[in-house]
Amino acid sequence: MTDNCAIWAAVLSARPPHIRTMYEYLLTVDGDEARARAQAETIADQPESAANIHTTILHVFTENDETSVQEITAATLARDILTDAGIAVDLDETVGDPTTAILEKAEQVDANRICVSGKKRTPTGKVIFGSVTQGIILSTQRPVLVCSADD
Known about the structure:
single chain; alpha/beta; disordered N terminus; 22% strand; Rossmann fold; 5-stranded parallel sheet; 6 helices; UspA; Universal stress protein
């Protein structure tokens, strides 16, 4: 078994340096800082090398106002955690239905993983109020990381 591992390591190290495995994460934030922190820390703790991770942080505004994603503390907190971990980050924003906008952005950036934050809701609450997280999970073939802040 050890010989096989050594051979595999030799094959990987022989790859040309310009061939890299890059992981694209789409991290979606609302205004909750604790959830944004949990999401960013989850991505920072992934097994991939930080140099091989790029994260797009997306905030979806439900109506067009004068606010920018740069003014959303949860988004800038997540950005700071990820950049401190050596992960490349872009901040992005859009206006519209959150589920639709997130799925469209995941397609646009060709996300390997979508990172969302779940809120604690009863099944009845999900039916009455809807669930962006549930909508994303049910509507995509991409892996979805669901994080929650410690209460």
